[in-house]
Amino acid sequence: QVRLAESGGGSVQTGASLTLSCAHSRFTYSAYCMAWFRRVPGKGREAVATIDDTGATNYADSVKGRFTIVKGNAGSTLTLHTNGLKPEDTGLYYCARRRFSGSRCSVRIVASDFGYWGQGTQVTVSS
Predict the structure, then answer these.
(1) Vertex 91 angle, CA 46 and 120, to 5°
(2) Confidence (pLDDT) at 31
(3) Which is more confidently placed, 83 or 27?
(4) Which of 16, 31, 97, 109 fits a disulfide with 116 by CB distance 3.0 to 4.6 angstroms?
(5) The pLDDT of residue 41
(6) Inter-residue contact 64 to 84 (CB < 8 Å)
C-alpha cells in the first residue's frame, strides 16, 4: 500500500522559512507526478506546487518565487522549501501522488485526481 508521511511544519513569524518533507519507501518519486497541497480553514485543498516525472515544476501564483519543490536524487524524498512565509500561507500541508506514472502534472489538476495522500503537516504563520 502506498503511504506518504509529511514532516517539517511548525509555527513561525512572517518572513520565516520552513522545509517540508514527504517520505515514502515503496516507490520512486521520480516516476510520478507529485504535489504539495494545502488546506486553509473554510476552503478546500489547493495545489501549491507540482513536479512531474521529468522534473518540470509548476507553482500556484500565490507562492511563485517563494516556494520550491524538489525531488531527492534517491527518488524517495519530496521536499517543499518555503521562504518569505506570510500569514495567508497558514494551513495544513499535504503531499500527494497521482495514481499512475506519466500522468499530467500541474497545479490546475484537482485534488480528487491525486490518489495517494499523507496525513498533513501544519504550518502556522503569525504576523
Answers:
(1) 85
(2) 83
(3) 83
(4) 97
(5) 82
(6) no
